[in-house]
Each structure stands twice: as structure tokens, then as C-alpha cells.
Amino acid sequence: MEEEDQQKVSDLIKELVLRLLSQNPTSNPHPIDRNSSEFRNSLRYAVRILSSRMTPSITPDASAIAETIKRRLATQGKSSQALTFAELYTKFTSKTGPGGVNNKWAVLYLLKILAEDRKAAKTQFDSSVLLPNLALNDAQTGINSRVSRSLGSKDKGWKNGVLLVSKDPENRREIAFREFVNLVKEENEVCEEVLVRDVLYACQGIDGKYVKFDKNADGYILSDLVKIPRATRIMVRKLSELGWLFRKVKGYISESMDRFPAEDVGTVGQAFCAALQDELSEYYKLLAVLEAQSMNPIPLVSEKVSSDNYLSLRRLSVWFAEPMVKMRLMAVLVDKCRVLRGGAMAGAIHLHAQHGDPLVHEFMRRLLRRVCSPLFEMVRSWVLEGELEDIFAEFFVVGQPVKAESLWRDGYRLHAGMLPSFISQSLAQRILRTGKSINFLRVCCEDRGWADAATEAAAAAGTTTRRGDLGYGETNALESLVDEAAKRIDKHLLGVMYKQYKFKEHCLAIKRYLLLGQGDFVQYLMDIVGPELSEPANTISTFKLAGLLETAIRSSNAQYDDHDILDRLRVKMMPHGTGDRGWDVFSLEYDARVPLDTVFTESVMARYLRIFNFLWKLRRVEHALIGAWKTMKPNCITSHSFTKLQGAVKLQLLSTLRRCQVLWDDMNHFVTNLQYYIMFEVLEVSWSNFSSEMDVAKDLDDLLAAHEKYLHSIVEKSLLGERSQTLCKSLFVLFDLILRFRSHADRLYEGIQELQASRTMESSLSSREKSKLLRLSSDKASEPGSWISDGRKALTQRAGDFFRSMGQELDAVAKEYSSLLEGFLSQLPVQQHVDLKFLLFRLDFTEFYSRSGPGL
Amino acid sequence: MDPDAAQTARESLDLAFHMSNLLDTGLDRHTLSVLIALCDLGLNPEALAALVKELRREPQLSSSPPTYAVPSSLP
């Protein structure tokens, strides 16, 4: 069987060779003789070829080969033929069984190769393609040379090397491309791929092979020694800027991280670093993707040319556009914030966020949200709980340890340096006040009810009392939270002050006692304490005075007052020197305890004291004059007892009396009007203003301000202010004068009474009783004005002398008084306070003084 | 050969000839049939293709005498 096959094969081969030779167009025109040497040679050659390869180099897969053929047809543009071929193939493969072709794949493969070769022969591109699988060894070089020689003689303009077929544009383009590639390779010492990789390294802060960081130039530069065209150099330089920026930002972050343990960097700084690191991790992701890309070559349509890498420097610059902007922003911020901390840092970053570009805006917003979260947290905890958790001194509210009474005024204050610019000054004030109120309530009032108020406030503002609800960009939310909290806490605080600590009542009590509003009490007190106070100051005992105070309270309407208030009222003896009388050092004081002493501080109480002294002095003068009036009752002086006097003496008596009366009247008018002015125009008016302001006060600051105003107006209007100091001095001189007058008047009337007594005695008594009386009265002989020892004549003379002297003294007093009063009144209109004009009006109601004195 | 087989063979040849025309191989029917027969007998199609190519382009085969020894045995 094999023999048969062999014979068949050889026959077929012969047949084939014959036919092929005869087919050959350049062969001899006559038919080939089987026995010609040509034929025999060809046959031998054919056998040789056939025996040289036994197994095919491809897998016998008919469908794959068919597919390949189809695709080739399609790519050549002969799609209809491809379809026809597909049809034919399917029919061909269906022909199985006897008579059918067994090795269909072989047939197909054969056809394929023949077609390719024929096509290639037509184009005659490359000699090496013609016989792709022919493995010629040295022994067959003869054939090879013969082949090449025969090929070479083919007259189709085929030459070794580059083909110059001008009609084929595809070829020229490809050739030109290859030339260019070679040129580029010559010029660049370093290929672009390496540069791209170096740039990517530089952008992560790592020195590449050619691109290194130069400390002197402070940048990533390409060494000049490397041969690279200028354009590329410039591009590399531009891209390395990103690396420089990255280095700066990373340097700042690592520096801050090093300083963490030293607690030099605050929470805001830490948040800033964290936000920067997040941005950098995004950046790293981008770089990782780019690095992966730089390894992949892009598939090109033309496979004949070596392709560049996917990532070129130009592509890199496009990719880096956005990260460059972001990195630049970060570097600028890093520079700005290197020395700042806390709220100042947040404020500086906020200023940079005012930018129109949406990319920048979005980026800054994200960053700021992270950076400001510690700040907002601090605000939240301060406003809702009064807690100041500020280890690094970054918050704009600064607390100091002070005593309870000055907690409100000095305990907390705003630190303007740490106030970020997106929190306005008024908002900051409100924040400060709210937290202060909570602390005040907690410390001074020992009240816990504010916690409810705080949660209510938070609920009303839409946030909760948990952490991390507020963020940057929600300044409105923060404001509303602060407002709600402030409203509620203030209300609560005021409620506590009014109800629990009875602020209003205490103020009223102070007014009634310290400012001598409780008239009957003051009267009794003056009556009782008066004689005591005439003694020198160091002999007076406070304890005794306290007892007298108690008596006064009990005997007046003050006894119906609240015990708590009465307990606080005490006598105070001011520090005194020798020669001081009790009048100068006596004062009352009111003990205001926590928390009311926030309002009634030491300085405030000192002012009250001053006012009290003034009012007390005024009262004393008034009291003195009233006392004088008591003795001046005309009933005491009945004229019939003086009928026996001589006319001259009587006249003197009457005139003295008259002068005394007139002077008294003058002084009384003055003092009364002054008293009324103080009482009604100053005290009551100020008090009603203060009351109405207390009703509308929204928080403790308002209350304090109102009280301050109240006191200030009192001080100013009652001539105790700084501007009225001269006036005040003249007023006190007047008071002293009036007191002197009182003593004169007392003496006068004493004298008159003695005279009267002696006269009645003389008329009614016997000599014996007279002598007894004389003896009794002889003890008083040294006293002036005792004239009983003398006889009638002496009596008259004495009376005359007495009256004369009294009259002179009274005259002196009167003159001094009128001049002083004039001086006082002339100074009044110059005063700036408008209410003093009312005083002048009252005093000079009838224009008596202005008409009499030229100065007015 | 029985008529069916002959029919099949003829049709197969027709199809193959059509395909070869499509592919522009330049083979005529007779040559193709010989080639198909040789393929069916198990010869390497690559070798056959090479042979065809060589013999086609070999006008001066007779110009130089062969200097090689022809192997006496056939595969």
C-alpha cells in the first residue's frame, strides 16, 4: 500500500512539475519533453524541496486558516470576495466521505500561501518575505545564489536596499517615518521614556537618573551635561515645578509632625496637616496611575514602526495641569501658615478661599472644613457647656483664674489675634457672653438649670449637642446656634438674678438705706445717733452704733422689710485720724454677696459710700436747721417778759432775733431746695430710668451698663463728679457755715432763755431763793451769758453786750454766707449737666439772687 | 470510484478552484487537482507551495548544471 502511495506520489510530482513548467510564461514555447534535462533537474529539485520538510509549521486547523484568509481578504478591501469565500469554505467542508478531500486544512493552507506569495511577488517588497520558511543551509548555497541571482535578474526595478517605487504613497510615508525615528534617536541621548519616568519620580520628591534636586538653584533640574534638545529641557523644567511644590508641602507636613510631641502645633495645625495629607494621597493615586501608564506602549495602527510609550512629556503636562494648581495653592497656604496657629491660621486660610475659580473654591472649602472643625468644636462646647478646652491657646476666648466676684468682668476676654476672619466681632462678643453666662451661673449662682436651656437652644438651632456637627461654611448655622443659646442662657441668667437673688429688691434696698430713701428711718437714725457722733471718732464704739442702728430700724417702717435685706445693712466706721468727729467717719454699708457683688463691686460700693456721705452731710445740715427752728419758736419769746427791759436793749434783741430769723430762712431755703433737688430730680429720676432699663435688659452686661449709668448720673448730678469739684468744695464750706450758724443760733437762744429765766426769777422769787439760785448758778459763773448773778442794771448791760456780740457774729455769718452762696450760684450755670440748671431754677426761683448779685 | 464519490470529488475540486481564483493563486484546474491529490497523500503543503513558487519563477533552470548529488531515495 505504501508502495502504491509512493508510486502515486512520484507520478503526481512528475505531473506537477510538468504542468508547472509548461505554465511558466517565460519558458520555451514548445512543450516540455519529459526526458529533457530541464525537466529532470526540476524534478530532482522538486523532490529535494519536498523532502526537506516533513511536518508543517502550523496546527492543522482548517477553520483557523479559513478565518485568516477571510480576514486578509477583508482587510484588502475585498469584502464581497470574503463573503463568497466563506460560503465556498462552508460548502467545501461539508464535502466529506469518499471523494472528498481529507486534509482540507492542507489545501487551504496551500492556497493561502500561494496567494500571499503571488501578491508579494507582484509588489516585490522584500526578498526575505518570499520564502519565509525556507531553511537553506550552507550546502545549498548554490541554490541560494542561483535563487538570488535569478531574482536579481528579474527586471522589475528591484534593487537591494530601499525601494524607490514612487507610485506607492504608503511606502514613502513609512520610510520617512523610520528615517525620522532614526534621526530622533541620534539626537537624544536619553529617550523620552526615561525622562518621563524621571519627571514622575521628581514629582514625588525622589531624585531620578537625570533629574535631580539642586539645593543652590532650589529646584529640580536636568544636568547640563546630558544631551537633550532645548524644548524637552524646558518642558522637563516646567513639569519639575510640581516636584518643587510637592517638596515644600511635604516638608511642612513632616516638620509639623515632628513638632507634635512638643505640643507646639495646635489642634488647628494638626487638622491642617491632616487635610494636606489627604490631598497628597489623592495626588499619589494620580501618580501611581501615570506610572503604570508610562510602562505601556500604545498600540499603533502601523506595526512596522517602533512605537513611543503611551506617556510622553506632553501628555504628562496635560495630566499635571490640575494637580499643579492644587499643589500651588497648598504651597502658598503652607508658606502663609508656617508661623500662625489657631484661629489666626484659620482666618488666613479663609482669606485665600475668597476665589472665583470653582476648582480652587471647592478645594479650599474642603480644606477649610477640616481645618476649622476643631475651632467650631471649641465654639460649640463653649457656647453650650461653658467649657474651654484649649490646651494650645488657639481659641479666641481666653480665661483667667479669678475670684468669684470678678468672674463676670475679668474672668474671660476675647483674644483678637486668634479671631478668625469669618467670625464677626459682634458674633464673637455674643459667643463670649454666652459662655461667660454659663460659667457665671455654674460658679456664682450654683445653678444647674442652664443645661436644659443649652439643649433647647441646640434643638432650636437644628444641631445637636454632640461633637462635629458644625463646619466651616456654615457660619450662619453657627450664628443661629449662638443666638439661640445666648437668648436662652441670658433669659435664664436674668431669671435667676431676679428671682433667686432678688436683684431688684436689693437695688431698691440700697437706694432706701444707702441713698437715704427711707425718710423716717433716716430721721430716727439721725436723732439717735446724732449725739454719739459729736464725740471724737476714736471714742465711738461700732458695736454701740450697731445697736442704735437696730433701734432705728425697729422704730421706723424699715422693720417691715425683708430680714435678709436688713441683715445686710451695717454700720461702718471709716478709717480716721485724730481730730475727726464721728460725723466724718460714720457710714452705712450694704453687704452684697456672690453673685450680686458682680454688680456691686468694691469700686461701686465706694461710690455709693461717697454719695452716702454727701447725702448724710446734707441731712445733717438739714437736721441742724430744723433743730434750730425748734428753738426759734416765737412762743418761747413772749414779749411781756421783756417789757421791763430798756428800749435799746429790746430793740437790739428784736433786731438780733430778726436777723437770726432771716438768716435761718435763707439757709433753710437753700438747704431745703438742695435737698429736694437731690431727692427728686437726681435720685428718683435716675432710679426710674434704671428701673425701666432693668426691665428691658437682655443680659447681665446690659444690667451692668444700666447700673453704671444710674450711678454715674447720680454722681454727676449731685455735684460729686470730677467736673464739679470746685462747686462741691464751696458747697461743703457752705455746709460748715450753716453748722456754725446753728451753734450761734443755739447760743443766742440759750442766752435769751437765760435772760428770760433770770427776769422771771427776779420778778417772782424772794431774795432767799434768789441767793440759792445765785449759788446754784454760781457754778456757771465762768460761762458767758450767765447774768443772773448780777442785778438788773448789770443784767440790762449784759443783755445789751450779749445781743451786740451776737448780732455782730450773726452779721459776720450772714455776710459770709451770702458771699459763699453767690459764689456757688454763679458757678452753677457754668456746669455742663443740664439738670443743674434746675437746681439753679429752684434756688433762684424768685430771681432774688440774680438781682442782688451782679455775677448771676 | 463510485459515481457519488466522483461527484463529491468533482464538486470539491470545483469549490477549491473557485477559492483559488478568489485568492488569485494563478493555478489552473489540473494543477490544482494534482496538488490536492498530493496534499491528500500527506505531503507538506508548505513544501508544495515552495515547489510551486520555485518552478514558476525558474526560467533558467537549465542554464547551470546541477552540482549536487540527488538523494536516491524518495520519502
From TrEMBL, chain A:
Residues 505-849 form the Gamma tubulin complex component C-terminal domain. Residues 196-499 form the Gamma tubulin complex component protein N-terminal domain. It holds the Pfam family GCP_N_terminal. One of its GO terms (biological process) is spindle assembly. It is found in: Cytoplasm, Cytoskeleton. Keywords: Cytoplasm, Cytoskeleton, Microtubule. This is Gamma-tubulin complex component 3. GO terms for cellular component: gamma-tubulin complex; microtubule; spindle pole. Its main location: cytoplasm.
Automatic annotation (TrEMBL), chain B:
Residues 56-75 are annotated as: Disordered. It is found in: Cytoplasm, Cytoskeleton, Microtubule organizing center. It comes from the Eukaryota. One of its GO terms (cellular component) is gamma-tubulin ring complex. Its main location: cytoplasm. GO terms for biological process: gamma-tubulin complex localization; microtubule nucleation by interphase microtubule organizing center; mitotic spindle assembly. Keywords: Cytoplasm, Cytoskeleton. Belongs to the MOZART1 family. This is Mitotic-spindle organizing protein 1B.
